[in-house]
Amino acid sequence: MKGYLEVNGHIITRKGALNAYWSDGLLIIANPSEVLAHEDEVKIIIRGDNVKVTDQAYTKILSRSNVKIYTEVIGDEVDFLPHPVIFYDGSNAYIENIIRVEKRARVLEGFILGRGGHGEVFNQGNVKAVTKIYFKDKLIIYDIFKNSKFVKNALLTYYEVNADGEYDYEKFLVNHNTIDSLWRKYSNINF
Asked: Quick check: helix, strand or coil at residue 118?
């Protein structure tokens, strides 16, 4: 699948299965299958003044896949709060999230290595996620997640940028049983 989604205010342009819809001021990105596999590539660009974005569910990246995901969110105020991504054992993925903000931002990222609920351990595969956050065109956060022996199961990272361009972040090494409650706490989204 080659998916492209662009949201500019309330105008949605798309190619492929990706879509977006608005619910009570929240932009929800929708991948009907909730799965990425094989050589899937997804590109999402979102522009708006006050942008609050999530997705409909956890994204799963299947084994023996080589997936690329590129997301760019541009706005005065940005809340980018996607559900965690689950990497099946043997999956490969490159993810790049770019946030461009003028006033303030909250960004939440979660990665789960292996399907712990099924007893699966992530033993092989390569995952790399790059996060870049710009405040008024100045790069203030550059963070990289790579699967390693230090991340046994899951990582949740919360970034916050205030109106002065000052930022703070928290990283949580957790397991698959607790990441959802932590994600809900920091995203403040309840489906």
From this structure: helix
Residue 181's contacts (CB-CB under 8 Å, 6 or more residues apart) are: none
DSSP string, 171-191: EEEE-TTTHHHHHHHHH----
pLDDT at 151: 65
Residue that the structure tokens 């710009």 belong to: 134
Tell me which amino acid residue 96 is.
E
Four-point Cα dihedral 29, 138, 130, 163, nearest 10: -50
For 130-151, what is the mean pLDDT?
91
Q: What is the distance, to the nearest Å, from the Cα of residue 24 to the centroid of all Cα atoms in its chain?
A: 21
In terms of DSSP bridges, do strands 66-80 and 41-55 run parallel, antiparallel, or are they unpaired? parallel
pLDDT in tens, 25-42: 999 999 988 999 999 999
**Tokens, residue 24:** 């009570």
Across the range 33-58, mean pLDDT stands at 96
Say how far apart CA 36 and CA 93 lie, in whole Å: 10
The residues, any chain, with a CB within 8 Å of residue 89's CB and separated by 6 or more, are 63, 114, 115, 120, 121, 122, 123, 124, 125
Give tens-digit pLDDT for 88-102: 999 999 999 999 999
